[in-house]
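Thread: Modeling a multi-component assembly for a lab meeting

Hi all, long-time lurker, first post. My supervisor asked me to bring a structural picture of a complex we are working on to next week's group meeting, and I have zero experience with this. I have the sequence lines for every component (955 residues in total). Could someone generate the structure of the whole assembly? Inputs are pasted exactly as I received them:
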Amino acid sequence: MRQISLRLNGVARTVEIEDQVLLVELVRSLGLTGTKVSCDTEVCGACTVLLDGRPVSACTTLALEADGRSVLTIEGLAKANQLHPLQQAFIDNFAFQCGFCTPGMILAAKALLDERPSPTAEEVRRWMEGNICRCTGYQSIVDAVLDAAGRRP
Amino acid sequence: MSEYSIVGRRLPKVNAWAHLTGAARYADDIDLPRMLHGRLLRSTRPHARIERLDVTRALAHPGVVAIVTGADMPEKMGIMPSTQDETALAVGKVRYVGEPVAAVAALDEDAAYEALALIDVEYEDLEPIFTIEAALEREDVKIHDEARRANVFKEVHLSFGDLDAGFAAADHVRDEWFFFEGTTHAPIESHAAVASYGADGKLTLWSSTQVPHYLHRELEKVLGLPRSRIRVIATPNGGAFGGKSDPFGHEFSAALLSMRTRRPVKITLDREEVFYAHRGRHPVKMRVKTGVKRDGEITAVELNSYLDGGAYASYGIATTYYTGALLTVTYRIPAYKFDGVRVYTNKPPCGPKRGHGTTQPRYAFECQLDKIAADLGLDPIAYRQRILQPPNSRTVNDLRITTMGLGECLGAVRTATGWDRKRGELPRGKGIGVAGSAYISGAGLPIYWNDMPHSGAEIRIDRGGGVTVMCGTSEIGQGSDNVLAAIAAETLGVYPEDVHVVSGDTSLAPVDLGSYSSRVTMMAGNATKSAATALREKLFAVASEKLGVPAERLAAAYRRIYDLGAPERYVGFVEAANLAEARYGTLVGAGSYKPPAGIGGSYKGAGVGPTPAYSYQAAVAEVSVDLETGQLTVERITTAHDCGRALNPVNVEGQVEGSAYMGYGEAVLEEQVFRGGLHKKPSLLDYKLPTSLDTPALQAVLVETVDSEGPYGAKEAGEGPLNPVIPAIANAVYDAIGVRFDETPITAEKILDALGKRDNRAAPKDRIGPDGLGDGRRDPGRALRRLGASTEARERKRAGTT
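Re: Modeling a multi-component assembly
Sure thing. I ran the full set together rather than chain by chain. Output:
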């Protein structure tokens, strides 16, 4: 066991973990089950979280790697009763069906918009390639990301 | 202005907030006090007898609490009562690599995983069977001893109209073979179940299942626990597409382990295991023979289908019939013969995937129609529009058709794509193709024979004006909760956000047969509408009195019950509900739905195919082929879908686009294939799902025919729109490079082969596809004749005696 300190969804936390624990296991064990396990091989993006603002696949990231860093999961995105513009845009553009890939989608999209506030549709498609949706066919997701980009101040 | 306040509006999903904030609880997200974690040991052999199974060492492993094996649950189970050939865990024999053999419950997942390696299994290998051909021929190797001939699971032989006269009258006949490769659903959420057997002797099972009611029945059968003591709760499914509509070994194992340990037990399949659970699209070899007059009018169709079923039944009987049943509902066919055979092979069981059994023959038939149109010099869209099966008619195989919007769908895709400008005008390497199709809005018959409703709904109105809809449907992402909320809100005159939907819970909600065969909107929708209508009558009675207006003059919308003659005169919804509760007592309405009688024939096999109403669709694919690399790019898919009425257009568009996406994957990328019984690609690294970069531009066009059978006129939207996409792509590839793809998937390698560029010596080909069973040199009719002989004798005998 060893102790790590991280800022998880804005709150400083110190947790004891075994070396082999994955970041997805850590956050899910803390009740943050919005981060999903699906492919287990860093292909599908369902487990995407932001580590110091950069999207990573939590299924293939050791929890140790989060030591001293900040982790954002889907639960940390909305502010009280105010959805993040991306979340609202996903509702308004009907950009999810089963919702299982959605947390990872939204966090990946957040990282894109933080880096490129006004991406083109083509850039969105390229960026989101690492997040697989089996329901929508992506069109509505691309629309949602572009819509959210337009809403940001 | 619309006559409806909710129906037809583009409203957000009722459960959106939970899904967007990570608050939605899928089965694997459930965490209960003292919960144990389970893992399944799976077979490493495709076909073997289990000589010894010893769990002693595994039980001694630290953290292991209990282990169960097939011997603990020997009762046969399966989704179709007449063909139950499976056990929760293998008993005596394994029939595919990945079949569950034992289940371990431990304090944590690591301990359970480690224990699997300590279970001692000795197998005696049996000769495996991997192909349709071997399954038909090998009488000496039986995957199931019960199979009467070789490894045939089911054969069906149906004939309607005068086939010989039909072909004799034809000016032109096409007779060719097709192959549709198997594919799997690959929902992003893997299957998971949590069982909790309480001190009260009652079992609760949360599961990502599409069929909580059928699972409820099977749990009783396998566990020997009365159904009155079992509660099944279908959790929100993270995608399903047909892949979660069978009862599965992990569900029974979690339940039994919980009963043995008196602790909650969770089993979540990992990604590799999902490929073994499968129940996906059957690989099907088909021979299609179609006769036409000079103008293209069809005179006769003959279809033989050979389905590779994998190791167990699943929905196989229905699948086999579905490869034949729905071919007749799109175009006029005066004579039709269908012979279908489903065989067992030592591979994971195939089952229902979006389009269930109709996708493969639809692909073959629409490709053949495209060839016929080319043979006769006809435009493929105009040709199809000329031979349409009429609305309000019966097909040659006695299926009742109500509304029929295929003609409008074909017209819509013609306009939307600029077809007339493009067809025949594109440079080599670019192509455009079309196809039509149809699907059921729910199966006309339930899976087990009974006279009860297919769907029931209960609605309660509380004193604050809240409306609770209880219905046994399973929300698999398709938006069924949303559909029920919209129908209840429309009927009662409230907003969807006033409606709470309790679905998928066998204790709280009346039975709905499940989220399969695109039945929810039609059946649960009608049940919900009828329950809401019963309640509305009570509200209207008290409002009528209060306003002094006859009930016929009242309408409900926007949380008001108002006078149609003077809309400013109204009773608020809450007040009406309170008045009604004072008058009638607790406000509960119940409704149920059963498909009408007389929608199908009475011959043996007539049970598969009928539905209250068929949906119709047409798709146009636009492609480009790189003539040097063989790379196929599908640039755009435009699908028009006759959904009866779009209760919520965005829901329908989502289904249509999602279907196009999935059809695209099957046409171009996906294949569930094996090498010596081993799955070649049981991971998302290897099994290629289309990404945002692969997926073409998708456009959905909705066609509304307003069917009197559906709630507010609605028909299905979830499955039919997949069907035309695959043949449309194949037909577009022909338009681009002049090569017919009579097999899927259409890969770059096959295109290069056809172009004569895979190696230097090869000659170009004008067709890629099978020529028959096996290498095609065998007499294709031989196996079927041999198998069919005794069945035909039986049929003759039956015909003679009745």
